[in-house]
Design a protein that fits this description.
This protein has 320 residues and is an alpha+beta fold. It is built from 7 helices and 15 strands. The strands form 5 sheets. The chain has a 6-stranded antiparallel beta sheet, covered by helices on one side. Strands 11-13-14 form a 3-stranded antiparallel beta sheet.
Length: 320
């Protein structure tokens, strides 16, 4: 592994990092700022459309997200497609472009706004609204389970967004999970990452083999785990149920020692009663999660997002 020089985004103090540290968090020894060690591909100062890169917000195998600023000082999050040797170039590029098209066509306060998209330095990028906050996943890692009422209110906001996405655009998100729900510091709830969403209105070519399952195994509905079965908005309901379960217990509803074993659990097993992890949970909340959202058959789940929101409103009113 080769070493390289990087700098703190706050105080600009230089430090030495190595390739195996890229994407990991680092605490500056000079000012105490927590930052993410950048890759060699995208560096501070690079220009993408109207924005120049400041520092990384997150790095993954096929993409990077960086904080950027335009000439007026407005901040944005730049999502950049950076393919590696193991990437399927055509599929990843089409999926990236599809996400950009999805987001650009939607207009809802529960979704991230897109400012521009294009190509620079031979990379495709999307400039999006920068939300100051943390994901539900971040919160769970730092603080453990949410308070019951807070969790219900957050999930209600997600349900409102998914209602809009399905009712107005016939889009199924297919990857609802704690890491894709952002809570801003002023209390806004945002649903992120439409990279594997499926539209029943837009004409998109199938990007994956029909026999391939798509999603994050701990949150996938039983029908999503079976490639031959059709999915609709009720698949997102199930994923939201898995998310709410985790928010209230800090435990997965379904998790095994391999992705395929986790997939089989969704199809064959029922989750542990969440009160075994959090005895103080309200009985009606548990019933809503276990019998409604996490019903194994899609037809046994609520028939609309309106019904989900109505139930959440009743639970919130009763527990307030």
């Amino acid at each position: 592994m080769a070493d390289f020089q990087s700098s703190c985004p706050k105080c600009q103090a230089m430090f030495t990092a190595s390739d195996n540290q890229i994407g990991k968090r680092y605490i500056c020894t000079q000012c105490g700022q927590e930052c993410i060690i950048p890759s060699r591909r995208i560096r501070a100062g690079m220009q993408f459309g109207n924005y120049h890169v400041l520092h990384p917000l997150g790095l993954g195998a096929s993409g990077e997200v960086h904080l950027a600023k335009d000439s007026q000082g407005n901040l944005a999050a730049i999502k950049i497609l950076c393919l590696n040797d193991n990437s399927d170039l055509e599929v990843d590029l089409k999926r990236f472009q599809r996400e950009a098209q999805f987001i650009h066509s939607l207009n809802h306060p529960g979704l991230i706004n897109v400012y521009e998209m294009g190509t620079a330095h031979d990379y495709n990028y999307i400039a999006m609204e920068y939300v100051r906050g943390e994901t539900v996943d971040d919160y769970l890692e730092k603080f453990g389970p949410f308070e019951q009422l807070d969790a219900l209110k957050i999930v209600r906001e997600v349900a409102l967004t998914l209602k809009y996405v399905w009712d107005e655009h016939r889009i199924v998100h297919r990857d609802i999970k704690p890491a894709n729900i952002m809570i801003s510091y002023d209390g806004q709830v945002k649903v992120m990452d439409l990279g594997i969403a499926k539209s029943y209105l837009m004409d998109f070519t199938q990007l994956t083999d029909p026999d391939t399952i798509i999603g994050s195994p701990p949150y996938m509905s039983p029908e999503q785990c079976s490639p031959s079965k059709p999915i609709d908005f009720r698949s997102d309901m199930y994923s939201l149920g898995c998310t709410l379960y985790q928010m209230l217990t800090d435990e997965y509803a379904f998790f095994a020692d391999s992705p395929m074993a986790t997939v089989r659990m969704h199809i064959l097993e029922r989750p542990t009663d969440p009160r075994e992890f959090n005895p103080n949970l309200d009985e009606e909340v548990v019933d809503f999660i276990m019998r409604k959202l996490l019903a194994r058959l899609a037809r046994q789940r609520p028939g609309s997002w309106r019904e989900v929101i109505k139930t959440l409103d009743a639970l919130i009113d009763r527990l307030s």
